[in-house]
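Question (not urgent): is this output format expected?
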Amino acid sequence: MPTVQAGPEIASALRALHDESVRYWSSFDTARFFAPIGGAWSPADNVRHLTKAMRAVNIGLNTPRWILWLRFGSGAVSRPYAEMKDVYLARLARGASAGRFAPAPAQQSSDAERERIMRFHAEAIATLTASIGRWREQALDARRLPHPLLGAITVREMLFFTLYHNRHHLEGVQRRVGNSNT
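Got this back:
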């Protein structure tokens, strides 16, 4: 992962990761896209989880900034991407789970449902990257958003988390699929 810091760099990295992810998710036939990988979520469940998480970030990014300040306080110096990744992985190691961001059981596993899942995911990414563009650099550090595992973190830290979170799930599925094929 290249070092990203500025909002436009984060947005660009999210778009590139989305393109990479879509290529990977497209490599599954529909039945396998919806099939759990061992005891873990299916690829579809991972995509639905990521979409749900990004929609929450989108709500935060589009909330009036004065409300964010009132509810979560002012920001500070944002921790770098690598530190946010380490903080998140430490929380997972201590048993943190997706909680309310876990995907509900899929109601169907059709081509149409797959298309709907991928369309919603693409819309969430498009909204996220467009929303990033409406934030000045200093505002990314001046405001906080709530994270269910990490508490109130700066907007920049939330963007770092979101970028890593998407990478984490993509690589997790790749690793599980690789292990299930051996």
